[in-house]
Amino acid sequence: MGKRKLPAPAAGADAPVHRNFYTHVALPVAVLWRIWLANRMPIMDCDEVYNYWEPLHFLLYGRGMQTWEYAHQYALRSYAYLLPLQGLARIYEWLLPSTSTTGMLKALVPLLMDMSAAQQRGPTVVVSTKFVLFLLLRCSLAACMARAEVILCRSLEERRIVSSPVVARWMLFVLLSSAGLAHAAGALLPSTTWTLFWLLTANCLVCGHVTWFVIYAVAATLAIGWPFGVVVLIPQGLYVLLVQTQLPSRGSSSESNNNANQKTQQKEEGWFSPGHRKRMEELVWLILFVTAAIQTMVMAIDYYYYGYSTSPNFQIFRYNAQAGGDELYGVEPTSYYIKNLLLNFNGVAILGLVSLPVVVLVSFLFSSSDEDNKNETTTSSSTSSLLLLLGVLLTPLYLWLALVVPRPHKEERFLFVIYPVLCIGAVLAWDGMVSIVVAGLGKVWPQLPATLAPHQSILHGLVWTPMAALSMMRIMALKKYYAAPLSIYLALHTQEAARPEAGAPRELVCTCGEWYRFPSSFTLPAHQDLGFLPSSFTGQLPQPFSQYGSSVQSVDLLQPFNDQNEGLRERYSKMEDCSYVIDLEMSMDCQAPSRAKVIATAPFLDAEKTTSTLHRTLYIPVLHEKAITEGTVFYQNYILYKL
């Protein structure tokens, strides 16, 4: 480790890689871990439910809650983003059996979510197909994220972008153990989808798959409906355009065998040589073709649902660009993001934020130490090539923070895009720091680098294992403290509630101040709808989709929408119209009438009464239970009432 040269990217598939580890160990473990967490993590943002799960439910079943962003006159959301998941849902529906108290559906639910929290006080639960469908869709999103994480780490090892296989595997460990990605991976949010596409495009960049890079990058930019994410692809796009067009794809063995000839040819041609310009032209034509194809498809889809030609990408960009647009939904200080990163990533966040300076310093120090090497030119070229590639992978972290931190309106989901960059950068930073220290000490004890080289994994484990332990305590805290809503809504699916008499009117399941924790209409039986009871919230609430969705025919059938977050009293239901009420036991917004019957309860952390900051943020077994008895941690019940 003392005089370690920064390795150059491998030219082909000759780089040693233990594919069996990633295929037979890492991938199954990562996918199963993400699936296990997908429905045990609470839904952290009501925008996920009302802006994505509810419209998806409408596309599948013709019912759901509509936000103003889907109103015909505003059209801020693209239906194209939801159609792939709609297609997957149709496949699952075909595979799943009908509602049954026994069989596969009943067996699936305990595997996909935690049912131990809720205490049922009624008939046996009847699991509906759409409830299981909701769980499976969230698991599918999380599994896709896991696969992308594994593939990128494998490519970093295979192409020798990192100093050793140990570094790539610790990267995967940090990715999988982080609390931030634990709840972000299964979310149906544009920021999560951008996270997935960043992993995919980064893998294409490392492997030199230019065509797939273009497809992924253009699809993410045009089809997700959140164009701001393109910022994280700017460094990659410039790298592909200016660097990777100098050489053909690195995948062929003949290219690997003629690596020296390629370097000579590259040196002779240089940038913007005739060969380079030709490949750049081909790339530009590819970009134009893919852009035209995807944009045409997206606009056709949105035309079908909105009834006129519109671009939700442009609409949402214009809305957020105007002064005070997103500020209507709250403003936060910069410390909000600092606390969020420390809470979800602890020391990983700190190391990740300093990763690029550390990588540059390591590159400078180790390239300088090789000045007397007879292959000085080759070494310098290899070091510069690797430094450039690592810089391209890490730069999105700083670009994204520069974009979102100054904005007054801050939300945790806005940071999802940089979560994998933080994890990868943190491991690179620690590996670089260890190399610098060992190289320095090696000047005093020359045998030290050779002695420590076989123990590189231990040096990483000393840092990442305790940080992973902290992340696990945060993950378990989220699971234990805030996962009650999904369990309580499952309790609606009883023999009594899920099988009404023929011809019975539709029922309202109402909530007061807990409207923002509603898991989605997927968790309601087919004959039930969501209703809002008056609460302290004064902003604009969603309303049910009309049968015409977002088309012009719906405008006269719905209560008016506005883009100023102004609430309407007409959105609220009356208590006497509700068949069920779901709310916290000590809700300050509304109280269930005395005639209400408790159907199910589940413990939910009372964060306001809990005075222990440690136990409010982390779950520490034994100590947490002791804090409850000592009166520093409080819970209240999340309750399903039948009226």
Describe the protein's architecture and organization.
By secondary structure, the chain is mainly α. 54% of the residues lie in helices and 6% in strands. The protein has 25 helices and 8 strands. The chain has helices at 19-38, 46-61, 83-95, 104-112, 129-158, 165-177, 179-184, 190-207, 210-223, 234-242, 253-257, 259-269, 274-306, 312-321, 335-345, 347-353, 355-368, 376-404, 419-442, 448-452, 456-482, 484-490, 495-498, 613-617, 623-630, and strands at 65-66, 119-120, 507-511, 528-532, 543-544, 580-584, 597-605, 635-642. Strands 2-7-8-6-3-4 form a 6-stranded mixed β-sheet. A two-stranded antiparallel ribbon has the order 1-5. The relative contact order is 0.14.
Write the SSE topology:
Blueprint: H1 19-38, H2 46-61, E1 65-66, H3 83-95, H4 104-112, E2 119-120, H5 129-158, H6 165-177, H7 179-184, H8 190-207, H9 210-223, H10 234-242, H11 253-257, H12 259-269, H13 274-306, H14 312-321, H15 335-345, H16 347-353, H17 355-368, H18 376-404, H19 419-442, H20 448-452, H21 456-482, H22 484-490, H23 495-498, E3 507-511, E4 528-532, E5 543-544, E6 580-584, E7 597-605, H24 613-617, H25 623-630, E8 635-642
Parallel strand pairs: 3-4, 3-6
Antiparallel strand pairs: 1-5, 2-7, 6-8, 7-8
Helix pairs in contact: 1-5, 3-5, 4-5, 5-6, 5-8, 6-19, 6-21, 8-9, 9-13, 10-18, 15-16, 16-19, 17-18, 17-19, 18-19
SSE-based structural type:
mainly alpha
Number of E-state strands: 8
Shape: globular
Helix content: 40-55%
Mean pLDDT: 86
Strand % is: 5-15%
C-alpha-based Rg, rounded? 27 Å
Please give the order of strands in the largest beta sheet: 2-7-8-6-3-4
The biggest sheet, with number of strands, parallel, antiparallel or mixed sense and barrel status, is:
6 strands, mixed
Q: Give the low-confidence spans.
A: 1-17, 249-268
